[in-house]
């Protein structure tokens, strides 16, 4: 949902595959590689997850997952450590990010994969989205204070969030003030429900798609089964998908906890017929969203269509 600003060097410097790495085909040199488990949708403390990249990599190894991507919300801050952790554990890794955008006022998430993690255009867009969200959060606290709730904008500005708790600053503050219990209640009460202040206004998808392409990456629609494609008639959402494809979208996240089986089947057939990228992942946030577990749903490399997406892959 949200990014947390972290500091530090932005790219690993000791890997020949670091920015413009081996193509996805590099992990297919052996027939057994096609059966490797993959999780291409994961969050860390750089956004609303509870694990560092090093902690995440160790968990991936324990679950038998050999290919992964960190896709933090509007943040590239964890990519350097994730690349180093991938090297240390012998994992194949691709750069990733999850941008918030909207089409006709409907919020969607776009995943970017295989891009240059130093690209200034992507860093600028991530920073701008962070600023939009931070300002919207301050506005929410100010509105609550004006309504007589037990909050203070001055106290909020001084509040230091704990990345290890997951979530974002305003959520942690409002939970600590006793105004909500979790992220779902926070969103419903203060942002998207009746009387909420609404969400930030994000740029259109083509802004992010063009930037991802300019950085050498590919753009994928995240979890289409969450509000876009219905379980009963996934084909009814095709006009929306076609609009995104017309903007340059490269593919769809076919496998995700919020994609019903009918949606996954529909997207698998669509990506095959149109020669599109097909990805999948758990959308795990550590303990912040405990029902989303690493490696669930199980996805193998043979289930994916990564095409020319670049990987930080062991040359083996």
Textual characterization of the structure:
- The protein has 9 helices and 10 strands.
- It is globular, with a radius of gyration of 19 Å.
- With 316 residues, the chain is of the alpha/beta class.
- Strands 5-6-7-8-9 form a 5-stranded mixed beta sheet. A 3-stranded parallel beta sheet has the order 2-3-4, with helices on one face. A two-stranded antiparallel sheet has the order 1-10.
- The chain has helices at residues 53-62, 79-89, 120-146, 153-158, 169-176, 183-190, 205-214, 238-246, 261-274, and strands at residues 22-23, 37-42, 65-70, 92-94, 96-103, 106-113, 218-221, 251-255, 277-280, 310-311.
- It starts with 21 loop residues before the first strand and ends in a 5-residue tail after the last strand.
- Helix 1 packs parallel to helix 2.
């Amino acid at each position: 949902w949200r990014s947390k600003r972290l500091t530090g060097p932005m790219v690993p410097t000791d890997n020949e595959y670091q920015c413009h790495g081996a193509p996805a085909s590099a992990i297919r040199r052996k027939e057994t590689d096609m059966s490797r488990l993959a999780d291409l949708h994961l969050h860390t403390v750089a956004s609303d997850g509870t694990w560092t990249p090093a902690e995440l990599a160790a968990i991936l190894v324990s679950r038998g997952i050999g290919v992964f991507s960190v896709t933090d919300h509007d943040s590239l801050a964890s990519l350097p450590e994730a690349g180093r952790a991938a090297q240390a554990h012998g994992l194949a890794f691709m750069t990733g990010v999850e941008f918030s955008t909207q089409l006709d006022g409907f919020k969607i998430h776009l995943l970017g994969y295989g891009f240059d993690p130093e690209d200034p255009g992507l860093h600028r867009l991530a920073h701008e989205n962070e600023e939009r969200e931070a300002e919207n959060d301050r506005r929410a606290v100010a509105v609550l204070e004006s309504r007589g709730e037990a909050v203070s904008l001055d106290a909020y500005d001084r509040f230091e969030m704990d990345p290890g708790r997951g979530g974002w600053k305003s959520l942690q503050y409002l939970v600590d003030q006793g105004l909500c219990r979790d992220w779902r209640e926070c969103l419903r009460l203060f942002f998207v429900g009746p009387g909420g202040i609404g969400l930030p206004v994000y740029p259109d998808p083509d802004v992010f798609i063009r930037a991802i392409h300019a950085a050498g990456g590919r753009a994928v629609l995240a979890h289409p089964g969450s509000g876009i494609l219905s379980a009963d008639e996934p084909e009814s959402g095709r006009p929306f998908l076609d609009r995104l494809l017309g903007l340059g979208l490269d593919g769809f996240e076919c496998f995700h906890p919020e994609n019903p089986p009918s949606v996954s089947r529909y997207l698998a057939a669509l990506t095959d017929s149109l020669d599109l990228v097909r990805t999948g992942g758990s959308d795990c946030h550590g303990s912040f969203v405990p029902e989303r577990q690493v490696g669930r749903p199980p996805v193998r490399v043979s289930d994916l269509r990564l095409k020319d997406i670049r990987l930080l892959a062991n040359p083996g």
